[in-house]
Amino acid sequence: MKPYQVIGIGNALVDVIAPASDAFLDQIDVQKGVMQLIDMDRAVALYGQIGPAREVSGGSAANTIAGFAHLSGRCGYIGKVRDDQLGAIFAHDLRAQGADYATIAAPASHPTETGRCIVLVTPDGERTMSTYLGATEFLGPDDIDSDQMAQTDWIYLEGYRFDGAASHEAFAKAIAACKGAGGRVAITLSDPFCVDRHRDAFRALIRADVDLLFANRAELLSLYQTQDFAAALRMAADDVAIVACTDSADGAHILTAGQHFQVPAVPTNVVDATGAGDLFAGAFMWGLVNEAAPDLCGHMGCIAASEVISHIGARPESNLRTLFAEHGVL
Amino acid sequence: MKPYQVIGIGNALVDVIAPASDAFLDQIDVQKGVMQLIDMDRAVALYGQIGPAREVSGGSAANTIAGFAHLSGRCGYIGKVRDDQLGAIFAHDLRAQGADYATIAAPASHPTETGRCIVLVTPDGERTMSTYLGATEFLGPDDIDSDQMAQTDWIYLEGYRFDGAASHEAFAKAIAACKGAGGRVAITLSDPFCVDRHRDAFRALIRADVDLLFANRAELLSLYQTQDFAAALRMAADDVAIVACTDSADGAHILTAGQHFQVPAVPTNVVDATGAGDLFAGAFMWGLVNEAAPDLCGHMGCIAASEVISHIGARPESNLRTLFAEHGVL
After folding, report:
1. Fewer CB within 10 Å, N- or C-terminus of chain A?
2. The pLDDT value given to residue A163
3. pLDDT tens digits for A166-181?
4. What share of chain A is helix, strand, coil (3-state, %, to 5)?
């Protein structure tokens, strides 16, 4: 048995969450529901325009790992913060949830700060994100410990981190060490625009090394440049051993070993959609390492996603095991 | 018409809110429901023991002013943060709510950090607070602008700030300037143990200068060193023009001009009791400056308190004016 079941690698961010109207999104000229990258000047200006906010640790893969840790899975996380107050908050929340987190923070003298994601939540529960990457952009191969990578069943790569060249190298180093020791590779496509920015790199990596692909409908359509969802699912299933594709209120599609499972979503009152895909992935992988059937893994993912969108913030607040039991999947 | 209706002076803190069990409170040896002061070493150690948290701007008087600003009252706040990330969060949240906030932050070279309050919320919704004061402890008379104090109808003093000698001087300077220009003085007793630490100073100030006293039952009993609540209310009414004393699920007592109003609490599901008294005071004062009758002011206070305890965090999330209208007090 390896010490770790999953190690996630991604953007270490603190979410700054504020309610906003649709009119405000228009006013600041952002596209609803997507993630845009912003620099520090824009982050400061935008922060000055939004209403009172609250700060909750986020980061896509970090949310996934937090969910996995919440379920008592053995896991770790790699992502870079700066040695500042937000960095301390990020590190605390991950460790307090039970995940290992040892990435060396950029020193206080570093010209960046800990990255943050300004999450504007509209009355319909949709989230629109503006991300200042800051220190997390500087994750490089030196932050990857090959010995640790050899000690995990899975690594989980966040697509967003494809936005940094040094992180491509970091991913390559992690994959080589993990696969060299018999481990497997999961990836999430993160965002349709992120896929658009890095389509070739994603496709090459997916065909070469990925065993488990997480995506949502828009991301998968973008990856395969088609409007035919069924065709995109088939292409993905040809590329990787396991496809887990979420489809908002229509639940999720799990394709593996020639089978195609459609898993219904778990209805809830959507308060803040942030983290739905992240928690789906965390719960799915927890089911997987505990040898649950693929459709049950999908059910677990949908239950966890439903929990996290029922409140503000992208980390679980209710006991997911209890929810799994209530839904009869545990 | 003066530019300000209320200016609050208090501890500028960011709340670090985490769920906790009663057993955990025993384990870390804190008394449930009260506020204890801790130093930075203890704050770091305690933070390392608690679970994943979220950060929301707090500070008792700051919450009161945020509630008053939320209601579109003309208001300001005085309290000291350091020039750091938590300080920026505190300042943003207050200004974004519509309050003036211009206190000069302690420089980044200052040996403290922005103060924070670790709020542990037990399953019953009760909050237990451990406060690292940090920079806020250094609020002194130089932070008080006498001209500004002359331009407000009311100043609102946070009892907690009695824990600092320089702040006594700051309060005295603020009171002199405010009263000298025909303004009035409100104070909140904050906490029974805080009353215990500064009873004589509180009593002297209340008799000499206070026009409006906010307290809860335990604080008022502590102030007058009695177990007879009715007697304590009478003594308070002899000391100040308006007494507004909350009594948890039993609502509030308003005593003024020889009258005694009992205002019922507004039932709700208590998620996090943090800020109940603060928002009561903010809404009460908003009623007062808008010349609502004393019992209506009390109703507004109870409605606002009910809103803030129905969710995590001590700042209003629902539209209080809408709630006032629904309850027929507007």
Report:
1. N
2. 85
3. 999 999 999 999 999 9
4. 45, 20, 35
Which pLDDT does position A165 carry in this prediction? 84
Structure tokens given for A117 = 């994601």
CA pair distance A113, B105, nearest whole angstrom = 19
Is B272 a member of any domain?
A: yes
Average pLDDT taken over every residue of chain B: 96
Q: Which residues of A touch B (CB under 8 A)?
A: 47-48, 50-57, 66, 84-86, 89, 92-94, 96-97, 113-114, 313, 315, 317
Residue B142 lies in a domain: yes
List pLDDT tens digits, range A29-79.
Answer: 999 998 999 999 999 999 999 999 999 999 999 999 999 999 999 999 999
Is B21 contained in some domain? no
Which of A322, A315, A5 has the alpha carbon at shortest distance from A153? Answer: A5
Give residue B163's pLDDT.
85
Q: Tell me the ipTM for this assembly.
A: 0.93
Q: How far apart are CA A74 and CA A319, in angstroms?
A: 17
Taking an 8 Å cut-off on Cβ atoms, the answer to whether A86 and B84 are in contact is no
Contacts of A56 in chain B (CB under 8 A): 54-55
Q: Provide the mean pLDDT of chain A.
A: 96
| Range A8-14 average pLDDT | 98
CATH number for the domain including A242?
A: 3.40.1190.20
* HEC secondary structure over B286-317: HHHHCCCCHHHHHHHHHHHHHHHHCCCCCCCC
Distance of residue B13 Cα from the nearest chain A Cα, in angstroms: 13
* φ, ψ of residue B258 in degrees (nearest 5): 75, 0
Q: What is the pTM of this model?
A: 0.95
CA distance B114 to chain A (A): 10
Q: What is the pLDDT of residue A38?
A: 96
Contact list, A48 vs chain B (CB under 8 Å): 92
Query: Distance (Å, rounded) from C-alpha B254 to C-alpha B243?
Result: 6
Domain of A272?
Answer: 4-11+59-83+90-102+135-326
Chain B residue numbers touching A113 (CB-CB < 8 A): 85
Residues of chain B with pLDDT under 70: none
Task: Mutate one of A15, A49, A54 to test the B interface: name it (highest B CB count within 10 A).
Answer: A54
> Can you give the pLDDT at residue B313?
92
Q: Within a domain: residue A126?
A: no
Nearest residue to B312 via CA among B269, B250, B256, B253: B269
- Chain A residue with Cα closest to B83: A85
pLDDT value at residue B200? 95
Substitution target from B15, B17, B49, B54 for chain A, most A beta carbons within 10 A: B54
* Partners of B214 in beta bridges: B188, B244
Q: Please check the confidence at residue A164 and state whether its pLDDT lies above 90.
A: no
Domain count, chain A: 1
The pLDDT of residue A198: 93
